[in-house]
Amino acid sequence: MGKNITVSSLSLALILTACTKEKGTDLPAEINNTTEQSQILRIAAAANLSDVLPEIIEGYKTDKGLPNQEIEVTFASSGKLYSQIISGAPYDIFLAANQDFPAQLLNEVFKGDANHTPFTYTQGQLSIYSATKTVGVFDQNTLTELLNSNDKSKITIANPELAPYGASAKSYLQTQNLYEALIAQKRLIQAENIGQAFQYAHTGSVDYGFVAHSQVIAMKATPEHFYLLAPTSYPAILQDGILITNEANAADFTDYLRSPTGQAYFSRAGYLAVR
């Protein structure tokens, strides 16, 4: 990661930083653009982007000839980031892992303002990953039987209330008639976000983890240790972003995300490109 990219956890410093309210608007003061706002580009990004986004940022700075552009990224679950933004955290861009949270911001904060219309920047994929078990040799039916038959195995998903990848994993388990049984048997371990779900699976704290496919690509997992679920077997993980401020560099960066160059980064990282 380049020296001008700051990756932080959810930080009280972001909450306490505020901008002066623009005259003549009814938006919260903290998320209005002002002439005094720092030129640092601040991005709130879903946890699943922690592998690919730093690479995209370096490419953006190189391609645009902006070596000194400071870009600060906070990775967390989309739900937590949404709450931070509603509370006034001074982000310029929100890159969520679903379409719901940016749409809520458009309706609840920006009141349908076309300057803050959400945009789809990628589509995520869901994999079942295990650091200790072989899963890549199964098909979907035999994999379901495996998860159902081994009553001692532990399975993790991200919090479905906050993490879109967790919501899709929950839906997949429900369609396979596994979710309620796993809950009843106390075999389903809920992680805070998709990053923590992957950590649980990767360290062997659980036997299987429903993770972002981009995570297994990033750590170069061998094929026998993951199974890429068919995109039609769970709700599509369409990931939307939204501009929080009217900063020109924020709009320029989101244009880069959606350009053929930006989409090539996502494709190599295990996402499905969007048009």
TrEMBL record:
This is Molybdenum ABC transporter, periplasmic molybdate-binding protein. Belongs to the bacterial solute-binding protein ModA family. Keywords: Metal-binding, Molybdenum, Signal. One of its GO terms (biological process) is molybdate ion transport. NCBIfam families: modA (TIGR01256). The keyword Mitochondrion does not apply. It comes from the Bacteria. GO terms for molecular function: metal ion binding; molybdate ion binding. The lineage of its organism: Bacteria, Pseudomonadati, Pseudomonadota, Gammaproteobacteria, Moraxellales.
